[in-house]
């Protein structure tokens, strides 16, 4: 069986590593400073599969701080703003798309 | 209400201490997530998109007002002020912190609530009819047997590491409100020719990726033998159920692959070898459990009190009464369903303030008791008819008197992609939009009984397969699209719905459902013919034509 650290990773565009924080479960992003941030704008951007694998391995090594790290696609806007790359990540980043109480 | 004994209280309290220690060790890094995951799941703790989700059991859907107030407290203190009632008589809190969970569990344990049997590959919360004990014509209160099964299966080592999760539902009424035919084991209480109480046993039902309606395996198992017979089924499942493929691990797949005859023979052989296995229920054991259920001291009340006659002049009250009030086995009393499906609201959600207020109303009008149904609504099971007008006014102020029970806006929906890490598509906004489209209560009444069920992925937590109209969200090329089925039903005539055609985009779902409903109104042969009966009579084709002719 292939070790998770050696699993094939293929990315097709700019990506980040995201997880949930162990203590409270909130969405966090791996930063370039080997830490975590709750803001997508702080996330380290990877553009090659090797970079993605390295960042994911680093994130997985922090089992105390984070759970279930994985690579997620993002879009980089003209001004450099980082946007989630799909609906799932949009919801994780921005929160619910619904009204909690009757509108 | 069921009163826990010392053993139950000790078990629940010890569980809290144990989990407190496990959480502490996880947060300190002594336990890895791999080691901790199974421990948290055994205490109802999942990890969802934004946060941990905490699922709490409401065995057979019965709550005291004290317990409901405590659920409100958990929602307010540890979460974001609301909870979500599920399709299996549980409540979920969506924003809870791992570090707060031991305290939340301890607060719940004080009132006899726990999160055992709400996740993991074990026996899940045994569910029942939310009208148990009060429905006219019921054989007997099915919660007695639900409780016996709960006690036997809780932390039972043989049922703690099954190939996959395992769900049992029990009904004792002709009309099945517990959806027993879509459970791993469905039990229908009835009496044999000698007047003895026992069960028709169904096995291998389930929804998800591969839906099956349960098959009858035994027409009558005497009540005293039900534990041994259920255990025989579980032993066969434990032995032959597949652990190599999660998609083929449920008992429904085993029953399907072996065939009900062969599966039945295996169970009979096991049962014979067990020879009771020490599990034959002594009459006194059943009576001991029965004695721990308390029933209200009902008054002798008139069938039609003056208060009700006077209130009948108010058309809004009458609309609600006809929709949400059901007959009770005791004259002068009613069962009142509280719709958690307000127009524009997320199905099954209740705020902490609403829960507190319902608890107060239960104390005032329902002997302190509340029920939770798999349709994601609440019920007050013992309301004197004379109190209905006052109760209605109070519920209306709380937003809990929407007269839509069993109508098109009484939608069952899973949390979907707004919350769930398994989901591919959103469920709640689809439900909210549909409730707005059919917000006119007169129109909804004219349409009649129509159940819409929505799931945000193939795991089918919204039971879409058995919705009269089922909506399944899937992801295609990065977009949410929705498959529509019609003709499903979850009652005693349970049926899997049929797909009407290609999936439709998110933005078109509500239009498509409106088309289907309009087609039904044009096609039904009389106003009393229910949607599901029209589909049965005419098949999918006319609905398909209507939906796809212009798309």
How would you characterize the overall build of this protein?
The complex is a heterodimer of chains A (103) and B (551). Chain A is of the alpha+beta class. Chain A has helices spanning 49-60, 87-94, and strands at residues 15-21, 27-30, 36-37, 66-76, 82-84. Chain A has one domain (15-94). Chain A is globular. With 551 residues, chain B is an alpha+beta fold. Chain B folds into four domains: 6-109, Sulfite Reductase Hemoprotein, domain 2 (Alpha-Beta Complex); 142-291, Sulfite Reductase Hemoprotein, domain 1; 306-398, Sulfite Reductase Hemoprotein, domain 2 (Alpha-Beta Complex); 412-548, Sulfite Reductase Hemoprotein, domain 1, CATH 3.30.413.10. Chain B has helices at 6-28, 33-41, 65-78, 101-109, 143-153, 226-240, 251-258, 260-274, 283-291, 306-311, 315-324, 352-365, 388-398, 428-437, 441-447, 509-523, 531-538, 541-548, and strands at 45-47, 52-57, 62-64, 82-85, 90-96, 127-128, 168-171, 185-191, 197-203, 215-222, 325-327, 333-338, 349-351, 369-372, 378-384, 412-413, 452-455, 469-476, 479-486, 498-499, 504-505. In chain B, the strands form four sheets. In chain B, strands 16, 17, 18, 19, 20 and 21 form a six-stranded mixed sheet that branches. In chain B, strands 1-2-5-4-13 form a five-stranded antiparallel sheet. In chain B, helix 1 runs antiparallel to helix 4 and helix 12 runs antiparallel to helix 13. The A-B interface holds A 20, 22-27, 63-64, 67-68, 86-88, 91-92, 95-103 and B 26-29, 32-33, 47-52, 82, 96-99, 342-346, 349, 351, 399, 417-419, 426, 428-429, 432, 478, 480.
Radius of gyration of CA atoms of chain A, rounded to a whole number: 14 Å
Mean of residue pLDDT values of chain B: 96
CATH topology assignment of the largest domain in chain B: Sulfite Reductase Hemoprotein, domain 1
Biggest interface, chains and residues, is: A-B, 25 and 34 residues
Percent in strands of chain B: 15-25%
Give the low-confidence spans of chain B: none
Based on Cα principal axes, name the global outline of chain A.
globular
Strand order of the largest sheet of chain A: 3-2-1-4-5
How big is the Rg of chain B?
A: 23 Å
Q: Helices and strands of chain B: which structural class?
A: alpha+beta
In DSSP terms, counting alpha (H) and pi (I) runs of 4 or more, how many helices of chain A? 2
């Amino acid at each position: 069986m292939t070790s998770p650290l050696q699993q094939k990773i293929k990315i097709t565009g700019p990506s980040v590593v995201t997880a949930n924080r162990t203590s409270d479960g909130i969405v966090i992003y791996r930063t370039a400073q080997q830490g975590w941030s709750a803001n997508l704008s702080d996330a380290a951007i990877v553009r090659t599969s090797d970079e993605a694998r390295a960042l994911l391995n680093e994130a997985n090594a922090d089992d105390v701080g984070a759970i279930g790290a994985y690579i997620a696609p993002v879009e980089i806007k003209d001004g450099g703003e980082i946007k989630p790359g799909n609906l799932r990540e949009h919801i994780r980043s921005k929160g619910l798309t619904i009204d909690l109480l009757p509108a | 209400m069921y009163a826990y004994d010392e053993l139950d209280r000790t078990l629940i309290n010890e569980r809290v201490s144990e989990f407190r220690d496990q959480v502490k060790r996880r947060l300190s890094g002594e336990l890895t997530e791999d080691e901790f995951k199974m421990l948290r799941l055994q205490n109802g703790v999942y990890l969802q998109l934004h946060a941990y989700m905490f699922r709490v059991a409401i065995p057979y859907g019965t709550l005291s007002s004290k317990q409901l107030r405590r659920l409100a407290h958990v929602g307010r203190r540890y979460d974001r002020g609301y909870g979500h009632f599920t399709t299996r008589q549980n409540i979920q809190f969506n924003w809870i912190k791992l570090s707060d969970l031991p305290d939340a569990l301890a607060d719940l344990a004080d009132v006899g609530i726990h999160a055992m049997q709400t996740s993991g590959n074990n026996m899940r919360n045994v569910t029942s009819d939310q009208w148990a004990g009060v429905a006219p014509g019921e054989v007997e209160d099915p919660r007695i047997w639900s409780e016996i099964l709960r006690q036997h299966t809780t932390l039972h080592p043989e049922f703690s590491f099954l190939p996959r999760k395992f769900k049992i539902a029990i009904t004792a009424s002709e009309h099945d409100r517990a959806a027993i035919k879509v459970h791993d084991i469905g039990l229908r209480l009835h009496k044999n020719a000698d007047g003895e109480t026992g069960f028709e046993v169904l096995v291998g039902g389930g929804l998800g990726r591969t839906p099956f309606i349960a098959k009858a395996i035994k027409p009558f198992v005497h009540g005293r033998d039900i534990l041994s017979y259920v255990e025989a089924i579980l032993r066969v499942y434990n032995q032959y159920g597949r652990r190599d493929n999660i998609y083929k691990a449920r008992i429904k797949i085993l029953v399907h692959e072996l065939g009900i005859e062969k599966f039945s023979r295996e169970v009979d052989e096991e049962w014979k070898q067990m020879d009771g296995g020490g599990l034959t229920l002594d009459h006194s054991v059943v009576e001991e459990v029965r004695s721990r259920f308390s029933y209200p001291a009902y008054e002798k009340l008139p069938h039609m009190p003056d208060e009700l006659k006077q209130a009948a002049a108010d058309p809004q009250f009458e609309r609600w009464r006809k929709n949400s009030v059901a007959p009770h086995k005791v004259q002068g009393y009613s069962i009142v369903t509280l719709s958690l499906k307000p127009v524009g609201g997320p199905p099954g959600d209740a705020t902490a303030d609403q829960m507190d207020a319902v608890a107060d109303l239960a104390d005032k009008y329902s002997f302190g008791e509340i029920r939770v149904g798999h349709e994601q609504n609440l019920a007050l099971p013992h309301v004197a008819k004379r109190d209905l007008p006052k109760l209605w006014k109070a519920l209306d102020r709380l937003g809990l008197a929407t007269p839509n029970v069993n109508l098109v806006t009484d939608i069952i929906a899973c949390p979907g992609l707004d919350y769930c890490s398994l989901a591919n598509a959103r469920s709640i906004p689809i439900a909210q939009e549909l409730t707005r489209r059919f917000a006119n209560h007169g129109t909804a009444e004219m349409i009649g009984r129509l159940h819409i069920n929505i799931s945000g992925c193939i795991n089918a937590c919204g039971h879409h397969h058995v919705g009269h109209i089922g909506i399944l969200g899937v992801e295609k090329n990065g977009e949410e699209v929705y498959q529509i089925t019609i003709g499903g039903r979850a009652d005693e005539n349970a049926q899997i719905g049929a797909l009407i055609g290609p999936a439709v985009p998110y933005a078109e779902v509500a239009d498509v459902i409106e088309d289907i409903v309009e087609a039904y109104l044009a096609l039904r042969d009389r106003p009393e013919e229910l949607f599901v009966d029209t589909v049965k009579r005419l098949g999918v084709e006319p609905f398909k034509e209507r939906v796809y002719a212009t798309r």
